[in-house]
Amino acid sequence: MSTALAIINRHRNVLLIDVVLLAALYLLPSFSHLTALPLYKLEPMRIALIVALLFTHRANAYLIAFTIPLASAWITGHPPPLKAVLMGIEFSVLVASYTHLVNKDRIPAFVALASAILLGKAVYYSMKFVALSAGWLGGSLVSTPVQTQLILAVGTAAIFALVEQRRGDSLPWRN
Fold first, then answer.
1. Is residue 127 within a helix (H) or strand (E), and if so which, with residue range?
2. 35 with 145: CB under 8 angstroms?
3. Which of 124, 102, 93, 90 has the alpha carbon at shortest distance from 54?
């Protein structure tokens, strides 16, 4: 029992961040329905992932990357299960490419995150195109306007870079 408490105590900040992120994401569809605002266009799952990148360790960021879309599909029914898997892969690519660019290539945070978001989106849309062509998914290839996605990618990367610069090299998953 004391070992379990020690583990929980050691990881309490990560657990707290995860619980807050997940609760916010679970409540977002209800809030969106109540207000009739299309909050999904603000890419809340990506924002949650980026918060995890900033304030937790890399393994947790991967966990968040793959499980948030799946949990959302299971709890709220949106996105559809196959699309949730594609989003999980997209977010995992984001984490992997950001980590590589920052740690191995020493690219500044803004450029690394913007590049990682764009690479993740390229992978996602490639997989979604295949799924749509094969008839595994319905709908259109792009549901959120590309301009909105670019603005969010640049804005998110800028805010992330400012927070990371303020924190310096104290990010928990940095090599």
1. helix 109-134
2. no
3. 102
Angle between helices 81-103 and 44-55 (to 10 degrees): 40
Q: Left if phi > 0, otherwise alpha if psi is -120 to 50, otherwise beta: which for 95?
A: alpha
pLDDT digits (tens, 9 = 90+) for 11-20: 777 778 778 8
State both tokens at 48. Answer: 């949650």
What is d(CA 173, CA 74) in angstroms, rounded to the nearest whole number? 29
Rg (CA), the chain: 17
Read off the pLDDT of residues 130-161 as tens digits, 9 standing for 90 and up: 999 999 999 999 988 889 889 989 998 998 88
Q: Give the separation between CA 171 and CA 112, rounded to whole angstroms.
A: 15
In the chain, domain spans: 2-167
Give me the CATH code for the 2-167 domain, please: 1.10.1760
DSSP 41: G
